Every structure is written in structure tokens, then in C-alpha cells.
């Protein structure tokens, strides 16, 4: 109730101070739209309250026409996080390809996410048998086709394999940890969730950057097919996570 009253108070102040109107009967759709534009993130909540108020006002003949009748929410499901700028991508690329102090697991997860939009699940479940050394490609998750690796990604993968070879293990997965070296299971989800902590960027942010690049240059349906995703699910993902207004210039 307090929130609703505060919204009506703010509208009344806006009308008198910025629109020169001191009577509810004078309010039109343009006034309401201008008020909603002052706080885009609160548009949905404000519009719900204003619709309720003006329906009541019309029923009481305070206004003749409901100015909110034709308005829609227009709520943007925008991207919840951020994408990487080109400079940040270059920084990460250099980190994972030239810095020997970076853990091989970080470099592997990072490069596959940055260049191939690999998820943590795809990397943690990657097995030795999924690697085709002759073609320099790997099978990632449920993708319908092998993923060709560029020379930089292949070098990082080889570094990960060399790290794995240091463990006396029969675990079939590429990424082996102290907790999995004696068994057959992949690295834990918790382990992968912190694998990129040292680089300062979360996996989702890195993968989303790659997805934005791809859908800007290709048909989303082709992108969905390449990743083994349902086309409709891909479009929903884009609608829910990518807000062009908040992307770096090269992603607009």
C-alpha cells in the first residue's frame, strides 16, 4: 500500500512540476508515458499501480478516459551481467596462451569458453576419447559435430593433457583433480565454478560474449544447430540475457 501511494505521489508531483497539470482529468497517455520514462526499471510496477488507480478514477468519474489503457509494459529482460570488451578479451587471450603461471584448468576452461562458448559442464565431462588429435578437434557435450580447435586452443588443450599426465590416473576425463584422480568421475561442479576466479571474470560472462559475437554475424538458428541447442531455446536465451543497450560498442 505504501509503495502504491508513493507512486501516485510521485506522479502527482511530476504532473504539477513538469507537465503543468493539477487535475487528474487533464492527464493523458503522453503524461503517463513521460512519467514512466523517468524510471525505466520501475516501469512494470508503476504501470500496474497506475492502471489500478485510473480504473478506479474512471469508475468514480474523476476521469473520463483511462490514460493507461493503451500502454504496455515494454519490460526489457536485459542481460543480467556484462560482456567482455575487446581489450578484456585480448587480455584474457594473452593470459591463457602466454602465462605459464596460470593453472592449466583455468586456461582450458577459459579458452574453450572464450572462443567456443563451452560451458563448464562440457569442459568437465570432456574425455580423452572425445579428442581427435589428427583433426585437432573435440566433441563437446551434446553438440552434433566435433568442434575444430584453433592453434591457440589446441596448444592450451595439450597443456591440460600434459598436466593430466603428471597424475597416476586412469580417469578418462581431461580435467582430473586430486579428488577424482583415483576414480572415474569428472571434476565436481563446485571445482569448475571457481576455476576462473583468478582471471576475474565469471564463465557465464565469457560464454555470453562469444554468443553475442556469433548471433551478430550468423543466423541464430545456425548458432543453435552448431551448439546442439533448440532454436526456440536459443531465442529465449537471447531475449532473457542480452540487452543490446548495455553491450559494448562492437556488440551493438
Write the layout of secondary structure elements.
Elements: H1 2-18, H2 29-37, H3 43-59, H4 86-98, H5 104-116, H6 120-124, E1 131-132, E2 137-138, E3 147-148, H7 151-165, H8 189-193, H9 203-217, H10 220-227, H11 231-241
Antiparallel strand pairs: 1-2, 2-3
Describe the structure.
- The structure is a single chain.
- The chain has helices at 2-18, 29-37, 43-59, 86-98, 104-116, 120-124, 151-165, 189-193, 203-217, 220-227, 231-241; strands at 131-132, 137-138, 147-148.
- The radius of gyration is 26 Å and the shape is elongated.
- It has a 3-stranded antiparallel sheet with strand order 1-2-3, with no helix packed on it.
- The longest helix has 17 residues, at 2-18.
- Strand 2 (137-138) and strand 3 form a beta hairpin.
- Helix 4 (86-98) packs antiparallel against helix 5 (104-116).
- The protein contains 11 helices and 3 strands.
C-alpha end-to-end distance: 40 Å
Query: Using only CA atoms, what is the Rg?
Result: 26 Å
Name the poorly predicted regions.
Answer: 77-81, 236-252
Strand content: under 5%
- Mean pLDDT over the full residue set: 84
Number of helices: 11
The dominant shape is elongated
SSE pattern:
HHHHHHEEEHHHHH
Number of E-type strands: 3
Helix content: 40-55%
Please outline the major beta sheet: 3 strands, antiparallel
Strand order in the sheet with the most strands: 1-2-3
Class from secondary-structure proportions: mainly alpha
Amino acid at each position: 500500500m505504501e509503495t502504491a501511494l508513493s507512486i501516485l505521489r510521485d506522479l502527482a508531483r511530476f504532473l504539477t512540476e513538469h507537465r503543468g497539470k493539477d487535475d487528474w482529468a487533464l492527464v493523458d497517455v503522453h503524461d503517463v508515458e513521460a512519467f514512466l520514462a523517468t524510471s525505466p526499471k520501475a516501469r512494470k510496477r508503476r504501470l500496474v499501480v497506475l492502471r489500478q488507480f485510473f480504473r478506479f478514477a474512471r469508475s468514480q468519474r474523476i476521469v473520463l478516459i483511462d490514460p493507461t489503457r493503451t500502454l504496455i509494459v515494454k519490460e526489457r529482460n536485459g542481460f543480467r551481467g556484462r560482456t567482455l570488451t575487446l581489450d578484456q578479451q585480448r587480455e584474457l587471450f594473452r593470459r591463457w596462451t602466454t602465462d605459464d603461471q596460470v593453472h592449466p584448468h583455468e586456461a582450458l576452461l577459459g579458452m574453450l569458453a572464450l572462443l567456443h562458448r563451452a560451458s563448464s559442464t562440457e569442459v568437465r565431462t570432456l574425455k580423452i576419447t572425445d579428442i581427435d588429435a589428427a583433426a585437432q578437434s573435440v566433441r563437446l557435450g551434446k553438440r552434433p559435430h566435433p568442434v575444430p580447435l584453433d592453434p591457440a586452443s589446441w596448444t592450451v588443450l595439450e597443456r591440460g593433457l600434459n598436466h593430466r599426465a603428471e597424475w597416476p590416473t586412469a580417469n578418462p576425463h581431461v580435467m582430473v583433480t586430486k579428488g577424482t584422480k583415483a576414480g572415474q568421475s569428472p571434476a565436481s561442479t563446485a571445482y569448475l565454478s571457481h576455476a576462473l576466479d583468478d582471471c576475474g571474470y565469471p564463465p557465464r560472462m565469457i560464454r555470453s560474449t562469444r554468443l553475442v559475437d556469433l548471433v551478430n554475424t550468423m543466423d541464430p538458428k545456425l548458432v543453435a544447430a552448431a551448439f546442439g541447442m533448440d532454436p526456440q531455446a536459443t531465442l529465449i536465451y537471447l531475449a532473457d540475457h542480452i540487452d543490446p543497450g548495455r553491450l559494448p560498442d562492437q556488440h551493438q
